[in-house]
């Protein structure tokens, strides 16, 4: 028996239709977000203000007294702010891709209801990723505005830090959503928060250069998506980004996000098509 693979206009029509279905799922998340956006906006504004005020200005005043040579000759505030931009993207992505996904498939059953319509599991996955990208863009824009108000920006290239922060967040969101949809209970999320998110937040170059870590652990830091996001956002903020290194960071983050996208289409289908 021969199998014919659709090509040409028919395949293009299906691809376009799939994109429209993903947008419909995004609109569903957007409708729900209209009820809760105020609380998230408050935290999105307060987090950068508190972090940059307490760590950048408070702790930074003590760090700067001992010299800034180890920070590349910039103040601790200017060193810290772009790192926090990428780290906040990671935190937002993990928050959006754990309990909201498990809730939709386990407790609320909205995913099961959705796949009874023309929506496919891959449409649900990609639609939620689009919503996550929107949330990442909003938070990154607020953080960039706060950085500017604090005087932590040294180069106009920091504008490119917004899509970099979004890409950093998606490098976490896609694989974690692929994992979250397979869960029956939420205990594994506590492990994720404690042993993945917090160590990465502390040891991926956000608060101090990775070069100050013990030599044996540095390669592990370099393998994390957050380090690539932090390094690129910092280089853009300081105006020292070199194209080969920047493209390497973008390629790594894109590869991780792409692998997560591929895995998510599989795990969503296995969980929702029974």
Word description of this protein:
The protein has one domain. The chain is 74% helix and 0% strand. It has helices at residues 9-33, 37-65, 76-96, 99-107, 110-114, 121-149, 161-180, 187-203, 218-222, 225-238, 243-272. Helix 2 crosses helix 6, helix 6 runs antiparallel to helix 7 (161-180) and helix 7 packs parallel to helix 11 (243-272). The longest helix has 30 residues, at 243-272. It starts with 8 loop residues before the first helix and ends with a helix. The model is unreliable at 1-15 (pLDDT under 50).
Topology:
Elements: H1 9-33, H2 37-65, H3 76-96, H4 99-107, H5 110-114, H6 121-149, H7 161-180, H8 187-203, H9 218-222, H10 225-238, H11 243-272
Helix pairs in contact: 1-6, 2-3, 2-6, 3-6, 3-7, 3-10, 6-7, 6-11, 7-10, 7-11, 10-11
Q: Which labels suit this protein?
A:
0% strand; 274 residues; mainly alpha; elongated; disordered N terminus; 11 helices; single chain
């Amino acid at each position: 028996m021969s199998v014919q693979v659709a090509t040409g206009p028919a395949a293009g029509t299906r691809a376009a239709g799939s994109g429209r279905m993903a947008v419909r799922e995004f609109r569903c998340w957007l409708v729900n977000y209209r009820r809760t956006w105020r609380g998230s906006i408050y935290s999105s504004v307060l987090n950068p203000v508190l972090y940059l005020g307490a760590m950048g200005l408070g702790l930074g005043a003590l760090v700067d007294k001992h010299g800034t040579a180890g920070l590349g000759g910039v103040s601790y505030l200017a060193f810290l702010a772009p790192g926090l931009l990428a780290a906040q993207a990671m935190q937002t992505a993990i928050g959006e891709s754990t309990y909201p996904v498990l809730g939709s498939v386990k407790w609320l059953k909205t995913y099961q209801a959705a796949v009874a319509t023309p929506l496919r599991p891959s449409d649900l996955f990609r639609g939620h990723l689009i919503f996550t990208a929107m949330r990442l863009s909003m938070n990154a824009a607020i953080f960039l505005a706060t950085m500017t108000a604090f005087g932590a920006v040294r180069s106009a290239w920091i504008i490119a830090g917004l899509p970099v922060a979004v890409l950093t967040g998606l490098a976490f969101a896609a694989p974690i959503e692929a994992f979250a949809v397979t869960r029956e209970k939420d205990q594994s999320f506590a492990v994720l928060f404690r042993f993945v998110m917090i160590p990465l937040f502390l040891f991926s170059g956000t608060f101090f250069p990775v070069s100050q870590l013990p030599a044996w652990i540095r390669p592990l830091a370099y393998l994390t998506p957050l380090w690539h996001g932090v390094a690129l956002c910092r280089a853009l903020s300081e105006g020292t980004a070199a194209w080969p290194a920047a493209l390497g960071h973008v390629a790594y983050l894109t590869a991780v996000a792409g692998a997560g996208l591929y895995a998510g289409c599989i795990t969503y289908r296995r969980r929702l098509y029974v």
